[in-house]
């Protein structure tokens, strides 16, 4: 019980102290990763900052500001308003259902005048916060009882169902898996995961019937891309060709032939990793993967180091989300999983995913800054 | 805090498990990278190059064809096309650009529809041809207005051009688009706009003329747009063909024949077999074939009774008539059935069984020997010697002099003619030979058929000392542009006595130059150019007994297709022959009145050009010398040659 005196009390850090407590190394790693993204976007535009790299830099700047702001907010405040945030995001998801903009065959966007808001991205954070708050207030004995798992299961199921209706299979899957990771970290018995896994596999044929045609097509194409080389298999075949032709050390910066000659589709967004692999080869791909692993390890280390269950679960949730982005995107462009439209974190062109991730890392940073703060069951104003 | 400590421990444990799981997944990613980028790298590199590198064939320029002095007979002409790139028309749009262009190059609604259809079928950066074969003036006007015509551009291509058009059509042949049948897998043949030789020299030397295609490796993007050229391999231009034709003489011959309805002529060098001129009239313009003929133009050519598409000099088969008599006389002398001075009495006819065989001279020639029989073309003499010597021996002699078999000229479509024998008749007709048929063959009628080329070859072999020359049109084929002077080819000697050959040659000289000769009206009086020859008049209808009694209807009173064919074979100079000529005027009338004057003009022209031909080829610098020559003799200029 080496609890520091000041940590027992409500907000006790000055802004200066909080900034001093920032995990600057992590920020440096994030900036390094984003810079790789700038370079790739510069190459994707044929050696120009316009139209992608420059805008991506601005977004990263905004994202960094969000990260720091989020990190500075007392973690107890996040705990206190976690459910409110969650419910608000669910409301936005419902709103998308009615007045969303249709993009690429799916309703995902809310037009808010100056920028489009994608509530499903926000949901990834909101769900982490809500689950973390729930399990923060649940004793270890409760976690092992099934009735206490009903509420968190619903917390996951509701947004997942809404997102699936848009339809956005990738995000829905990410929500479910992130939720499962939090369940796991919170101490839910392992046999329950095994059971759910078996049931899921058994139910897969039924779920198949609920998939949209284009989703079925993606799965089928994934299983055998050569079936339809000019149609839906084109993306993945071209991606593998570009990827493989990079070889060990790649064709050199700005020298990727397949990407620059437009054989590679969506090279600035979902398939940017393929472009990197074509230009920098396996060496470049492994380097980026290594960078991601380091960020991941730091994230997990911060989580473990945290003294409150809420902080730990937020940390594990954010890193899980981050890992899922990385894994699904890379596996997707290499033909390991179907093309589900998940961007490569911090690198793919696009503002929403960048903001979501940096928001998430802001929370992680917050748990780091407030790692020793004792938090009651309901956050600020609550007695320990 | 006890509960929290337990939770933290559990959390840490679970986190370690998660890290394990994540690292496993990360290893999977790394493994996949290794698989794609190391194990399968070569395969994907190949696929990537297949993606981006497109091999484009470059059509080689077709080889030129030149005459014996280097004057181009078939050449490649710049062909200006106006093209439209729809993406470059900017705000104007395709329609707007076509409207503007309409003021310079008017286009019909049909053409416009075709263009619009092609534009919509192709990607926007693919040029679409609006019009080919632009006049220079049109090109200039488009170029001047270029700033106001966005997306419109002039493109240069090459098209085959025959400066002498119809005058050489049958020899040159023509080129036109590749037919499905010709496609052998050579990718050159798949090129749009590629042409292959369809007849004549263009056909027989097609492979040499084609050359070999170059290739250009270009990098294309996913939409097929060419980004840059990676590699270029120039092709080999087609070989240049130097022909034996003397285009100046050829033009003179063509002009001379153009007065007739249907005629053909061949001029040979009797020592080398070089075909100096070969004309079949009427003709066609090979340039039209390259452009593509309309149905109406085609039907007109096909339905013309004078068969303009057929090269009658090698594919027209005619009874040689009296032109055959030299061979009959030679056979008789060689076989000893009559001596050179042996005489036969001609009363104007000869009877064999019940049949009366008439001489062309109603009241007969009286006593004739071999020389006067040839010079006066006495039929009865040849009836008699043919009867004595027999058809098979005549046939054997005729074959030695080139009849009955293709001469082997390097030109497609040559006919073999016919030299009948007893065996032939049994086989072909399943009938036995009648002696009357031998008599008819004795004056070159009946079954005997020969092409004008065969008659020219026969004449050459009769007057060149008995060498079995064969005719040729190709002098040399050169891929470098420098033509080697071909080695003189020694032709085999025909086994026949020089004395008898000299007698025949002398008799032929008398045909033209003795006061009783049948062609005396066509004699050349300039002692340098004296010619010899033999007339031939071939009936194409049967003259009935009744008609003969009432008087044979004159040719000019007959419909054209029933008139006699007029033939003449000749040579010059008489004392040291250099040129042989054969002229056939279909339904022209008498050999002496129609064919002989033509032959005289041809031989005269040929001899006057003698000095020109004697200049060794290596000393003539291409067309320069020949152009001067052309100016001196015949004032015939090729109609199409206006530069």
What's a concise summary of this model?
The complex is a heterodimer of chains A (384) and B (643). By secondary structure, chain A is mostly helical.
Describe this structure in words.
The complex is a heterodimer of chains A (384) and B (643). With 384 residues, chain A is mainly alpha-helical. Chain A has one domain (13-369). Helix content of chain A is 66%, strand content 3%. Chain A has helices at 15-21, 24-44, 53-72, 75-80, 82-99, 119-136, 140-143, 150-165, 169-186, 190-210, 213-223, 234-245, 257-260, 272-305, 309-333, 351-369; strands spanning 101-103, 106-111, 116-117. A three-stranded antiparallel sheet of chain A has the order 1-2-3, with helices on one face. In chain A, a hairpin with a 2-residue loop joins strand 1 and strand 2. In chain A, helix 15 packs antiparallel against helix 16. Mean pLDDT of chain A is 85; it is low at 1-10. In chain B, a hairpin with a 6-residue loop joins strand 19 (565-572) and strand 20. The longest helix of chain B has 38 residues, at 2-39. In chain B, the strands form six sheets. In chain B, strands 2, 3, 4, 5, 10 and 17 form a six-stranded mixed sheet that branches. Chain B has a five-stranded antiparallel sheet with strand order 12-11-20-19-18, sandwiched between helices. Chain B is elongated, with a radius of gyration of 36 Å. Chain B has 643 residues and is of the alpha+beta class. Helices cover 39% and strands 18% of the residues of chain B. Chain B has a domain at 311-474 and 492-608: DD-peptidase/beta-lactamase superfamily (Beta-lactamase, 3-Layer(aba) Sandwich). Classes of the chains: A mainly alpha (384), B alpha+beta (643). At the A-B interface, helix 9, helix 12, helix 13, helix 14 and helix 15 of A face helix 1 and helix 2 of B.
């Amino acid at each position: 019980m080496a609890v520091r005196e000041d940590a027992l009390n409500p907000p006790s850090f000055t802004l200066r102290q909080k900034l001093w407590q920032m995990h600057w190394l992590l920020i440096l790693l994030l900036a390094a990763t984003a810079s790789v993204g700038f370079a790739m976007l510069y190459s994707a535009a044929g050696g120009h900052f316009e139209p992608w790299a420059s805008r991506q830099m601005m977004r990263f700047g905004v994202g960094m500001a969000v990260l720091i702001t989020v990190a500075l907010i007392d973690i107890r405040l996040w705990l206190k308003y976690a459910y409110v945030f969650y419910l608000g995001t669910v409301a936005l998801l419902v709103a998308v259902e009615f007045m969303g903009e249709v993009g690429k065959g799916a309703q995902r966007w809310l037009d808010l005048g100056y920028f489009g808001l994608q509530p499903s991205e926000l949901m990834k954070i909101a769900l982490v916060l809500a689950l973390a708050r729930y399990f923060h207030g649940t004793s270890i004995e409760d976690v092992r009882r099934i009735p206490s798992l009903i509420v968190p299961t619903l917390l996951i199921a509701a947004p997942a169902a809404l997102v699936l209706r848009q339809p956005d299979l990738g995000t829905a899957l990410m929500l479910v898996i992130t939720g499962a990771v939090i369940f796991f970290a919170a101490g839910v018995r392992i046999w329950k995961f095994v059971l759910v896994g078996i049931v899921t596999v058994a139910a897969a044929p039924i779920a198949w019937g609920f998939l949209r045609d284009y989703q079925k097509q993606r799965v089928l194409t994934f299983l055998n891309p050569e079936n339809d080389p000019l149609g839906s298999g084109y993306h993945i075949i071209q991606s593998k060709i570009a990827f493989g032709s990079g070889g060990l050390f790649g064709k050199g910066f700005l020298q990727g032939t397949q990407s620059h000659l437009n054989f590679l589709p969506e090279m600035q967004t979902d398939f940017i990793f393929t472009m990197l692999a074509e230009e920098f080869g396996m060496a470049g791909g492994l380097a980026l993967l290594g960078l991601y692993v380091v960020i991941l390890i730091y994230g997990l280390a911060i989580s473990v180091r945290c003294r409150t269950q809420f902080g730990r679960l937020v940390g594990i949730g954010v890193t899980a989300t981050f890992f899922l982005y990385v894994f699904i995107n890379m596996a997707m462009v290499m033909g390991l999983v179907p093309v589900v439209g998940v961007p490569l974190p911090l690198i793919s062109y696009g503002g929403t995913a960048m903001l979501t991730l940096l928001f998430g890392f802001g929370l992680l940073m917050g748990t780091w800054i407030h790692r020793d703060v004792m938090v009651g069951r309901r956050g600020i104003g609550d007695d320990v | 805090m006890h509960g929290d400590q337990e939770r933290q421990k559990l959390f840490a444990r679970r986190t370690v498990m998660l890290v394990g799981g994540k690292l496993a997944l990360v290893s999977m990613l790394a493994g996949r990278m290794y698989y794609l980028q190391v194990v399968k790298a070569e395969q994907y590199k190949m696929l990537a190059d297949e993606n981006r590198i497109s091999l484009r064939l470059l059509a080689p320029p077709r080889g030129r064809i030149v005459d014996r002095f280097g004057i181009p007979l078939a050449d490649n002409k710049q062909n200006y096309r106006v093209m439209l790139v729809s993406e470059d028309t900017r705000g104007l749009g395709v329609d707007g650009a076509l409207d503007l262009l309409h003021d310079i190059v008017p286009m019909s609604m049909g053409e416009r529809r075709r263009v619009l259809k092609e534009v919509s079928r192709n990607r926007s950066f693919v040029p679409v041809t609006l019009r080919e074969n632009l006049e220079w003036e049109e090109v200039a006007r488009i170029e001047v207005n270029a700033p106001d015509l966005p997306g419109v551009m002039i493109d240069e291509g090459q098209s085959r051009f025959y400066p002498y058009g119809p005058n050489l059509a049958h020899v040159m042949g023509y080129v036109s688009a590749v037919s499905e049948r010709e496609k052998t897998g050579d990718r050159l043949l798949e090129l749009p706009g590629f042409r292959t030789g369809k007849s004549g020299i263009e056909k027989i030397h097609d492979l040499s003329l084609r050359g070999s295609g170059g290739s250009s490796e270009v990098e294309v993007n996913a939409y097929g747009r060419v980004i840059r050229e990676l590699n270029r391999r120039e092709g080999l231009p087609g070989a240049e063909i130097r022909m034996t034709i003397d285009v100046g003489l050829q033009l003179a011959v063509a002009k001379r024949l153009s007065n007739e309805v249907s005629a053909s002529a061949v001029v040979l060098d009797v020592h080398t077999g070089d075909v100096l001129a070969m004309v079949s009239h009427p003709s066609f313009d090979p340039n039209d074939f390259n452009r593509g003929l309309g149905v109406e133009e085609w039907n007109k050519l096909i339905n013309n009774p004078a068969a303009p598409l057929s090269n009658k000099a090698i594919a027209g088969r005619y009874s040689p008539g009296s032109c055959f008599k030299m061979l009959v006389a030679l056979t008789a002398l060689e076989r000893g059935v009559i001596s050179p001075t042996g005489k036969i009495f001609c009363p104007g006819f000869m009877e064999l069984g019940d049949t009366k065989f008439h001489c062309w001279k109603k009241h007969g020639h009286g006593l004739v020997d071999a020389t006067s029989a040839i010079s006066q073309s006495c039929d009865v003499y040849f009836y008699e010697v043919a009867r004595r010597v027999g058809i098979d021996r005549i046939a054997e002699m005729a074959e030695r002099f080139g009849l009955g078999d293709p001469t082997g000229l390097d030109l497609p479509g040559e006919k073999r003619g016919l030299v009948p024998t007893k065996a032939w008749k049994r086989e072909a007709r399943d009938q036995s030979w009648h002696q009357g048929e031998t008599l008819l063959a004795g004056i070159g009628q009946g079954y005997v058929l020969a092409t004008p080329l065969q008659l020219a070859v026969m004449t050459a072999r009769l007057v060149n000392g008995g060498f079995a020359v064969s005719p040729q049109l190709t002098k040399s084929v050169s891929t470098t542009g420098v033509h080697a002077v071909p080695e003189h080819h020694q032709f085999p000697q025909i086994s026949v006595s020089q004395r008898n050959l000299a007698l025949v040659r002398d008799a032929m000289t008398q045909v033209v130059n003795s006061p009783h000769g049948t062609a005396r009206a066509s004699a050349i009086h300039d002692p340098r150019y004296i010619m010899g020859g033999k007339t031939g008049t071939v009936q194409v209808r049967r003259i009935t007994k009744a008609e003969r009694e009432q008087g044979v209807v004159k040719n000019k009173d007959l419909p054209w297709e029933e008139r006699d064919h007029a033939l003449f074979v000749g040579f010059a100079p008489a004392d040291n022959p250099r040129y042989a000529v054969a002229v056939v005027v279909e339904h022209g009338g008498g050999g002496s009145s129609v064919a002989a004057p033509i032959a005289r003009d041809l031989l005269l022209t040929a001899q006057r050009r003698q000095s020109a031909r004697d200049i060794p080829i290596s000393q003539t610098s291409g067309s320069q010398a020949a152009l001067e020559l052309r100016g001196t003799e015949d004032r015939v200029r090729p109609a199409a040659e206006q530069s």
